């Protein structure tokens, strides 16, 4: 039997009706939905490739939009954390440095994924007909499936711990759920 008392206490710190929190949840959920819908639409219609004159230009444009949306998501996440109370027992060096280490590992996975895949491999080039010569199996893909998604989730987890933020932890769970759904949809 699971003791949920700690979870109930932890999330007693979170006001899920706060506008900033709701905006953060919506931005977290929107991003993977947006890029999957647009990529599948492009794959079926080649409309973006026609508008931009080439699949590469269209992919770079979509990638840029995704990067901007990710910046907006991170900003909303941070603002939602700042507007909610901290968990005072976690506002200490140990938690801060643990969060920093988790964020560093997440950053390693995100950057190494990008370096292994390149821009078009990272930003849905296969939907534009830009295919890699072979499947990438080197690090970090040799360690973890979907390292970009789980690295990003780790960054948010670390960021939440660094800020001793129960709201951040709940939003990190939303990130993980959104990516899990995206992986199922993409697979």
Outline the structure in words:
GO terms for molecular function: phosphatidyl-N-methylethanolamine N-methyltransferase activity; phosphatidylethanolamine N-methyltransferase activity. Its EC number is 2.1.1.17, 2.1.1.71. This protein is mainly α and 187 residues long. It has one domain. It contains seven helices and no strands. It has helices at 5-11, 19-45, 47-52, 55-82, 93-122, 147-162, 166-186. The longest helix has 30 residues, at 93-122. The radius of gyration is 18 Å and the shape is globular.
Main sheet makeup = none
Q: Specify the oligomeric state.
A: single chain
Q: What string gives the helices and strands in order? A: HHHHHHH
User: Could you name the ranges where pLDDT drops below 50 across 5 or more consecutive residues?
Assistant: none
Mean pLDDT: 93
Strand fraction equals under 5%
Task: Output the keywords.
mainly alpha; 7 helices; 187 residues; 0% strand; globular
What's the gist of this structure?
Pathway: Phospholipid metabolism; phosphatidylcholine biosynthesis; Lipid metabolism. The chain is an all-alpha fold and 187 residues long. The protein contains seven helices and no strands.
